[in-house]
Design goal:
The protein has 378 residues and is α/β, with parallel strands linked by helices. The chain contains seven helices and 17 strands. The chain has three domains: 8-193, Rossmann fold; 229-281, Roll (SH3 type barrels); 287-368, Translation factors (Elongation Factor Tu (Ef-tu), domain 3).
């Protein structure tokens, strides 16, 4: 954690992951102001294969913005090439999930494998005591639980804890999130105080490796349009209603751009990879009673869960939902909502909270549509 003892801090080295944005640049300023030996590091990779160009947190523009911020702060700045990691762990997963009829969240994978995986290991090998990032979240030590816990950021509009559940719990003591107690307005005020050239730079909500023309263009350029195999649209009774362009082009809850003229609105409620079928129906088909999640990570809790009442999010920036969660076998869990929820999407993440603590999270495998008694683990 950041301390106020500058004399003590000067013996500690903090690498700051600087994307070129205002948040991570302010973090570098805060860390230096606290007296730490502060070093900036920017990740890069080649995005030329996307067939389109746009500003990227890991592209040329982001690197240059980070370099200028480091120069103003008078700290060293290095660039780390993680092209192989992002290609294999993040982009590979992104394309595989879409081709299997699922909707991935690459930010979760990036945090797990890149920022708090490859980058964390790199800076630790270079002698870092801590890695600091510009995430709006917090890490606190709980004396009661005798462990470090991941928590929500104070600003509910900027809280990024949903994307961080996949962090390894053993890295938490060596991670700093200085922005956890701040709002975006306060961060910009600090940026002006430090004289940062990117103080007014707008934030980015885009996926860094996806071109401005969208993820469909990215998939076509990477995999070849010929691999987008058309197949049938069907209703719940199995009637063929038309032909889709390839399951990678659709997601659960989608209504627009289906190319169907049925005289009534229909929504994608199931995508079946095995038969290359996209199922559509009325809005009521979207409401699920629960879900099964796999690839669980218990960042601030111990497994298993036994019919534990928690708050959950099934997508970023949605209100928390009341639910019961029970661990199954092979690292999976069953979630039962207190009230049916719309558009539970395979490939997205479900994250479990107890108050402001992030207990765990996993990847949604499939929704559950029938009310059955929850089976608890003995």
């Amino acid at each position: 954690m950041i301390t106020q003892n500058k004399e003590q801090n000067k013996n500690k080295t903090v690498f700051v992951a600087m994307s070129g944005g205002v948040d991570s640049s302010v973090v570098a300023g805060m860390i230096k102001e606290q007296g730490y030996n502060t070093i900036g590091g920017t990740m890069c990779f080649n995005i030329s294969h996307t067939g389109d160009s746009k500003p990227s947190c890991c592209g040329v523009a982001g690197i240059e913005d980070a370099r200028r911020a480091a120069q103003v702060l008078d700290i060293p700045h290095y660039v780390f090439n993680f092209a192989d990691v992002i290609d294999e762990k993040i982009i590979g997963n992104f394309t595989d999930e879409y081709m299997n009829g699922r909707t991935p969240n690459p930010c979760v994978q990036c945090n797990q494998h890149l920022k708090f995986g490859a980058l964390y290991q790199k800076v630790k090998s270079l002698g870092a005591d801590y890695l600091a990032t510009g995430h709006y979240s917090k890490i606190h030590y709980s004396p009661a639980q005798k462990r470090f816990e991941l928590k929500k950021g104070n600003d509910p509009y900027k809280d990024q804890s949903y994307f961080l559940y996949s962090m390894h719990k053993d890295t938490l003591p060596s991670i700093l999130f200085p922005l956890g107690d701040l709002t975006k307005t306060e961060v910009r005020e600090l940026a002006r105080k430090y004289g940062l050239p990117n103080a007014e730079k707008p934030g980015s909500q885009d996926i860094c490796f996806v071109p401005s023309s969208g993820y469909k263009t990215f998939l076509e350029n990477r995999l070849g349009k010929e691999n987008m195999v058309p197949g049938p649209f069907k209703d719940e009774e199995g009637n063929v209603l038309g032909e889709h362009k390839g399951i990678a082009y659709y997601t659960i809850g989608q209504r627009d751009k289906l190319g169907l003229s049925l005289g009534r609105p229909v929504y994608v409620y199931k995508i079946e990879k095995e038969t290359n079928t996209v199922y559509v129906g009325d809005e009521s088909r979207l409401y699920a009673d629960g879900l099964i999640a796999r690839r669980m990570n218990f960042v601030s809790a111990d497994a298993p869960f036994k019919n534990l009442k928690v708050k959950v999010r099934i997508r970023y920036n949605q209100p928390e939902l009341s639910a019961y969660v029970t661990s199954l076998d092979k690292g999976s869990v069953e979630v039962r909502f207190e009230n049916p929820q719309k558009s539970v999407t395979p490939g997205q993440s479900v994250v479990f909270y107890e108050g402001d603590v992030v207990l765990a999270g996993g990847i949604i495998d499939h929704p559950v549509f029938d009310r059955q008694p929850t089976t608890t683990v003995a």
